[in-house]
Amino acid sequence: MIPSLQKNKILFDYLPILLVSILAISILIIGCTSTTTIPQNQVEPSGIPIPQKASAKTLQKTADVLSVSIDLGSGSTQSLETKGENYAIKLMDPGGSGSYKFNPEQISLSAGKIYSFQLISETEAHSFTIEKSGIDQWVEANQTIEFNYAFSNPGKYQLICIPHQTLGMVTEIIVQ
Ligand SMILES: [Cu+2]
To answer: Are the C-beta atoms of 128 and 119 separated by less than 8 Å?
Structure first.
């Protein structure tokens, strides 16, 4: 009886220290795990992990203004944080307006001017790709993205939608 009582007394003496220790360890564990969370853009709201490339596109989709890329010719670009003049382009498809087309079909721009392009996708995912300028913006179905761009050099730039290029979703941008 007596040794058992002593054992209990010792336990009660050390109980507060034990509890404080457990609390301290718990805080440490929580603190450590919270710094190793997965970057937000790797997981969609539904919680399904998506590939890195697709997540970059998701990021672009939610950004109001990405950046301004000034085409300096010779393949180099310069980025600025300025919003340009609005220029909306619809990315049309059979589920929407009837055929695979850019709208407007005739795109005429001024050289050196910053444009804030709004790309509006109808019922399918489309791309706004100008290989000559290294532009490759993808828009998911029923989404709108915005990006700024200025063409430095006058000329003709072929604009294609990669998924629908063979179906005629090709046009030319004329920069004057
Ligand atoms: Cu398309």
So the answer is: yes
Nearest to 39 by CA among 53, 30, 52: 52
- The 3-state DSSP class for residue 68 equals strand
Ligand 1 midpoint to CA 159 (Å): 11
Residue 105 CA to ligand 1 center (angstroms) comes to 13
| C-alpha 64 to ligand 1 mean position (Å) | 22
98-151 pLDDT, tens digit each: 899 999 999 999 999 999 999 999 999 999 999 999 999 999 999 999 999 999
User: How far, in Å, is the centroid of ligand 1 from the Cα of 79?
Assistant: 27
**What ranges in the chain are assigned the alpha helix state H?**
2-34, 52-62
State in Å: Cα 82 to ligand 1 middle.
28
pLDDT at 83: 83
> In the numeric block, which tokens belong to residue 124?
């399918």
Mean pLDDT of 52-74: 44
User: Ligand 1 mean position to 158 CA, how many Å?
Assistant: 14
What does pTM read for this prediction?
A: 0.58
